[in-house]
Design a protein that fits this description.
Elements lengths: L2 E3 L4 E9 L4 E8 L2 H23 L4 E2 L2 E2 L4
Antiparallel strand pairs: 1-2, 2-3, 4-5
């Protein structure tokens, strides 16, 4: 969930992407909560695609292939 960062001029939206063997913690910043969230969702899609290609694996959501992002 986005939160005001610093003196409230920027917003931060942390995210975590994890598998059984690794974990990645990051955050995206925006000028408001909506932009921080939107950038996070777009970045997650790219991150999942990258992990699937480089780790030769697949993400599943509710037992269906795909990360549902």
């Amino acid at each position: 969930m986005p939160f005001a960062h610093g003196e409230g001029l920027d917003w931060c939206c942390p995210y975590e992407l994890s598998t059984e063997s690794s974990k990645k913690l990051f955050a995206m910043f925006g000028i408001d909560a909506l932009q921080a969230l939107e950038l996070t969702m777009k970045t997650l899609g790219v991150e999942v695609e990258y992990w699937e290609k480089t780790k030769n694996g697949k993400f599943y959501f509710l037992d269906e292939e795909g990360a549902a992002i």
